[in-house]
Design a protein that fits this description.
InterPro entries: TPR-like_helical_dom_sf (IPR011990). By secondary structure, the chain is mostly helical. The protein is built from 21 helices and two strands. It has four domains: 1-81; 115-137 and 149-242, no CATH class; 244-324, Serine Threonine Protein Phosphatase 5, Tetratricopeptide repeat (Alpha Horseshoe); 336-449, Serine Threonine Protein Phosphatase 5, Tetratricopeptide repeat, CATH 1.25.40.10.
Length: 449
């Protein structure tokens, strides 16, 4: 027996008033920023709410909606009580499970907006199992008759990207890379084997390109630089083929970061400059700020202090213009903490370790607790800068905090490599109590990794 169609949420539609769905979505994102939340609200999400497809929002959206409409309960807004939808069994034809990721709760593409499936999977088997529960299964051989592809499939690709970003923000790349690669192949199979409208094609190309970048980043953070370079090139080709400057800017942005880490600083500069050219018409000062930091990292690798400082000043000036509705969804990680952390890396590469440590310390202090991986990253940067700058005890304390996170929450080869370098620098100070304790813990963690 087919499930009954959801009842439209007329109460929420009245709250939207005369605003278009897109305008209302922008108001939701602005309200989220006012209270320190991050939601990826767009016109499609508003449409899903008003159609009744989303019976109850996740906790982040609930906080934002209550901020926008003080005194209103979820019921007043037309939503079902949370206990009425939590853990509800899916109908057999409800479609693939996909997450809503704005506050770490998970949902499905049917009317269950907050399933515990992914949380249980992560707690029992780690991020790979959580991702496996969330993303589309690999697609088999091409069918004799092309399959009809619609908005539902495009949405599953878009949500796969969001889920990868959420798990990476909190736990790092290790354990995610292989499964994410399977999902990328599934996304490209949709493009190759399906029949779809131009609107769906545009969404599939953009989603597949973003998914390629996400998989590339997982490879990058896991130390698989050749794989990362290939995935970023794939995303860039998709961007050029579909005429998508936002995707092109993102692909070049990550290419610049990879080139810097792989010891190709001149390529990092060129890629960052190409990204800035692609991004100029997009209207996002924050994106241009991040890209200026990518360029600064390249100049630092080349030892060109003057060019690096110019790029850092440009990044700070652009960042100071504030957020806008044109900021890409993937940039939720880019706040003042990331600005400080990336500047720290520039000064470190220029050999100014004390100055680098000042910025790394700020990065740790300013980081949103949601971004567990970045807290570990900035702490590892701080440990290395302090060790090189002649502050062994404080470096050991920063290194100890990294080990706490690596042991409990984060899996990242890149962060481990940074911590290894700090431990090596601290070697001559092993007679100091704090340093000796850190080095012993570090050695034990390497043996058990």
């Amino acid at each position: 027996m087919a499930p009954s169609p959801p009842a439209p949420n007329t109460a929420f539609r009245r709250l939207r008033g005369d605003l278009s769905p897109g305008e209302f979505a922008a108001a939701v994102r602005r309200a989220a920023r006012e209270i320190g939340e991050r939601v990826s609200c767009d016109a499609r999400y508003i449409g899903r709410v008003e159609s009744g497809e989303i019976r109850c929002p996740n906790y982040a959206y609930e906080r934002v909606f209550k901020h926008m409409f003080p005194g209103c309960t979820l019921t007043d807004m037309g939503f079902a009580p949370r206990e009425a939808v939590r853990g509800r069994r899916l109908h057999a034809d409800a479609g693939p499970v996909v997450p809503m990721v704005d506050d770490g709760t998970f949902s499905t593409d049917s009317n269950n907006e907050e399933s515990d499936v992914l949380r249980r999977a992560f707690m029992t088997s780690g991020p790979a199992a959580a991702l496996a529960a969330a993303l589309p299964a690999p697609i088999g051989p091409a069918p004799a008759v092309p399959r009809r592809i619609g908005g539902r499939e495009a949405h599953s690709v878009e949500e796969a990207v969001r889920q990868i970003r959420l798990l990476d923000d909190r736990h790092g790349a290790e354990g995610l890379f292989q499964r994410a690669g399977h999902s990328l192949r599934s996304a490209y199979a949709l493009l190759d084997q399906g029949m779809y409208s131009q609107a769906v094609a545009d969404r599939l190309h953009a989603g597949s390109g973003e998914l390629a970048i996400s998989v590339g980043w997982l490879a990058h953070d896991s130390g698989r630089h050749a794989d990362a370079r290939s995935y970023y090139a794939e995303a860039l080709a998709t961007a050029r083929m579909s005429g998508d400057p936002a995707l092109e800017a993102h692909a070049f942005c990550n290419t610049a970061f990879l080139a810097r880490d792989a010891g190709r600083p001149r390529e990092a500069v060129r890629a960052a400059q190409a990204a800035q050219r692609a991004a100029r018409a997009l209207g996002s000062s924050r994106l241009l700020s991040l890209l200026a930091l990518r360029e600064a990292g390249g100049w630092a690798g080349l030892g060109d202090r003057a060019a690096c400082e110019r790029a850092l000043l440009r990044a700070a000036r652009l960042y100071g213009k504030g957020p806008s509705d044109a900021d890409p969804e993937w940039m939720t990680f880019y706040g003042e903490a990331e600005l400080e952390g990336l500047e720290a890396q520039c000064w470190s590469r220029l050999g100014e370790y004390r100055r680098a440590a000042v910025h790394a310390r700020r990065g740790v202090a300013l980081q949103d607790p949601h971004f567990t991986r970045n807290i570990a990253l900035y702490s590892a940067e701080l440990a290395g800068d302090l060790a090189a700058g002649g502050e062994p005890d404080e470096a050991a304390e920063a290194g100890r905090r990294v080990l706490d996170l690596l042991g409990e929450h984060v899996r990242s080869s890149r962060i481990r490599t940074m911590l290894d370098a700090a431990a090596t620098t601290l070697g001559p100070h092993r007679r100091r109590g704090a340093v000796a304790e850190f080095l012993a813990r570090h050695a034990h963690s390497r043996r058990s990794a």
